Amino acid sequence: MKIRLPNLANLRRGGGDLPAAPPASGTIVAPAAPIGGFGDRMRLFSRRLRSSAGWVFLAVFVFFAFIWISLPTRALAWRIGHQARQAGYLIDIEDMSVRPWGSATLYNVTWTYAPSHPGQIPHQMVLDAVDVDFSILGYLLLGNIDVEVDTMLDEAPIHAEYARSGSESSIKIEVTELPLGSVPKLQQALGAPLRGLFALHVDMTMPENLFEKAEGSISLECASCSIGDGEELLFIPGSSGITAKGITIPEIDLGTLVGKLKVAEGRATVEDFKTKSADIELELTGDMPLKDPFSKSEFAFQMKLLVTQALQDKSETLRFAVQTAGPSSKMDPPDDGWLGFKLRGTVGKPRFMGIKSKTAEERMLERRQKNAEREAAKKARTKSRSTKKTEEKDALERNNGPELPSVGAGETGGADREPTKAPDTEMRPAEPPSTPSTQPPPPEPEPEARQEEPPPPPPLPPAMEEVQQPEGGQGQGQGDGQAPPEGQPDGQAPAEAPREGEAPPPNDAPTG
């Protein structure tokens, strides 16, 4: 007996053209979805896609793992140290390890300080490990820099953050319980041994990535600090005289130093910075304008120092230094016995000077102020003279009326033009006005009675200066019976004497 099995291919395609027989019970059943439809094809494509993605991911992982394993970390460490040396810092990094998520660890970081004094051996600061966390995605996508640094120095934790975007940047530094002698470059700059615990807190924000617009605060503290041991020399950076060559001092108790500075609009101003102990008293005031780059920022601090009598009795060197201090360093009352100093210069090159000394910039500013005062006084004097002339002119116009324009002058005159001076003339008393007479005028002589005036005779030489007497009978004698001259009626008064400055009237009668 032969049994014929159904064709599986026909079953997958729906069994060919033959309709499916209804079930025996007579219930209608929905036809099954054909195998190999759209859903099957999508599932097959998904399985293939996942398989391809897995292979791609595996290839990328193997690639990065190979790069990470074969990464030349020593070359990268040397490159970082080379960049630091170009910036002016002698830093060497032995090795480093890099993690894919953007963090790295630097091993055996050595910072060598340049000598601060001739013949000094350079000091070094060695850090066993420095952890650096860098945001790679933020830098690649947005161009922002976000770095965090953590390390340990003499079992003191040090944490620093730096963030920079297109609009602003920020700096945060946190140092706690760091030995004072381990503060970078401080021990080498001073020379004398330092003791105590140092703490520092910095929190600043720089709008537009400029220190000139920084805002924030700076605080520091030194607990149980001391300096000197009676053997090593103490150098004061930027000073002159005996302290520049170094002096040997005993151990000086500095007490607990607390300092607070407020940063506003790019200027760090001292709010509280002082210490007091049995040996010294120290106060710091002033401010520090910040500049870009930060190394060009200049100090503008004033320091007051009081060396107690107990410390002077302990050290002859300090007593001599205090007694021989220059007049520019000694304070005036009520701060008798105090020494005053100015801290000037940049962060890289600080310098100390007496509090009464003047820098080149201060002397130049003083000269400019004096020149400005002289110019102001000169302008005031010129204005005063101009005002005085104007008042004199107004007074002259009120007394003599408005001034007439002189010949050749313009139509308008300036306010500063000097008034025209009147010509010098001889002043005479005014004559009283003549009053009209009520008497009739005297009768005029007859025309025929008048005689023409003969011309005056020519002058005679001195030897012949004799006047000839007229002949008698002419009625011109000088005797008692002389008749009045012709042309003058009887009873008429003789002519008045001529006034001063007038010619005398002609006299026809010669003198005899």
UniProtKB/TrEMBL annotation:
Residues 358-378, 388-397, 414-429 have a biased composition (Basic and acidic residues). Residues 430-444, 503-512 have a biased composition (Pro residues). It comes from the Bacteria. The chain crosses the membrane at residues 52-71. InterPro entries: T2SS_GspN_Lepto. The keyword Protein biosynthesis does not apply. This is Type II secretion system protein GspN. Residues 352-512 are annotated as: Disordered. Keywords: Membrane, Transmembrane, Transmembrane helix. The keyword Membrane applies. Residues 481-496 have a biased composition (Low complexity). NCBIfam families: T2SS_GspN_Lepto (TIGR04411). The gene is gspN.
